[in-house]
Every structure is written in C-alpha cells, then in structure tokens.
Write a structure and sequence with these properties.
two-stranded antiparallel sheet, Hypothetical Protein Ta1238, Chain: A, mainly alpha, 54% helix, 4 strands
C-alpha cells in the first residue's frame, strides 16, 4: 500500500528523481519522460471522462479501467529490469491487459462504418477529448520506444500503449454518434 504523508520531500530539488528501485535519475531521463507522459495521458483520460460519463456510462467504466492500467504502466516503466532479483515482484503490464483493450476496440468498432477518409479531431466535445488522449498516448509510445532502443522495456507495455491509442481513436468515432458526426479530412479543400 502507498502512504503519502508529505507531498514535498525536497529530494528532487537538484533535478533528479527516484525510480521504484531507489536509483536516482535526471528528471529529463527517457525513463522519467516515458512514465511522465503516461501520467499525462492518464490526466487527459480524466478530462475525457468528465464529458463522457453521463452520456456513455459503459465507456466511462472502460476509461476508469484504462486509468488504473495507466498507473500499472507507470509503475512498470518506473521499475527497470535488473540483474539482481528484486525484493518484490515488479508490477508489469500483461498480455491480459492488452487482450482486454483489444476486446473493447472490437466491441466499439463493430458499431462503426468503415472509414473512407481520415478523421479530423472533433465532432463532439467527448470525441475531441478522446482524440487528445489518442495523441498524448501516441507521444508516450514514441518516448517508450526511444527508451526501448536504449534500455530493456517490457514488450507488453509497448503493445498496450499502441493499442491504447487505437482504442481512443475508435472510442472518439463511437461517441460521435457511431461515426455520423465525424469530421472528415478533405485533401486540398482550402487551396
């Protein structure tokens, strides 16, 4: 259980922060950037829930589960793999979490017509928020893959964040009256 009695510790005042292992790294380290961007994704999902909860309670429940998974993902990224056995098993994103999000994508996508053009973010407030979540999760994925080029990263975590952005795209279309309110890109429209 996590107990936070004091919010400021002053331990990061010199520009470093601690990983779950206690190892200190610069705050601009790719691992810190990765789980920081996952945290940002989680905050954007919280904003999306504010505009989806009343109209789409079933989607809100999924978004709540995703927020919990995003904390798991942050813990996964904050705990690098080490050669020494850890004192406790680290929390890692699992294939079952990937499968669960794939099932949600398939469920929502079943209600949508195939796309004939790219979709511009918008259409409804809920869709706009979900598109923002999509773009922030894509940024998290880019940082995570950059980190994976330098250090070991749980492969399931990268698959999860890739599916997550797909989920947000499909969910944005779904809340847009199952795609009827989508704003489609018209190439060269304003030339």
């Amino acid at each position: 259980m996590v107990v936070l009695n004091k919010i400021y510790t002053k331990t990061g005042d010199a520009g470093t922060t601690a990983l779950a292992s206690g190892e200190r790294r610069p705050k601009h380290d790719l691992r810190i950037e990765a789980y920081g961007t996952v945290d940002e994704t989680n905050a954007v999902v919280g904003q999306a829930r504010l505009v989806t909860a009343s109209a789409h309670p079933e989607l809100d429940a999924v978004l709540g589960r995703i927020q919990n998974d995003l904390f798991d993902l942050g813990a996964d990224l904050a705990t690098p793999e080490t050669e020494e056995p850890p004192a406790y098993p680290p929390l890692r994103i699992t294939e079952s979490q990937v499968s669960a999000i794939e099932a949600e994508i398939d469920r929502l996508n079943a209600d949508l017509e195939p796309l004939r053009s790219f979709v511009l973010p918008g259409g409804s407030p809920a869709a706009a928020h979900l598109h923002l979540a999509r773009t922030v999760s894509r940024r998290a994925e880019r940082v995570m893959t950059a980190l994976a080029a330098e250090e070991t990263v749980n492969p399931s975590s990268i698959v999860y964040v890739n599916r997550l952005s797909d989920f947000f795209f499909v969910a944005a279309r779904w809340v847009n009256d199952k795609g009827a309110q989508d704003v489609l890109w018209v190439p060269g429209k304003n030339r």
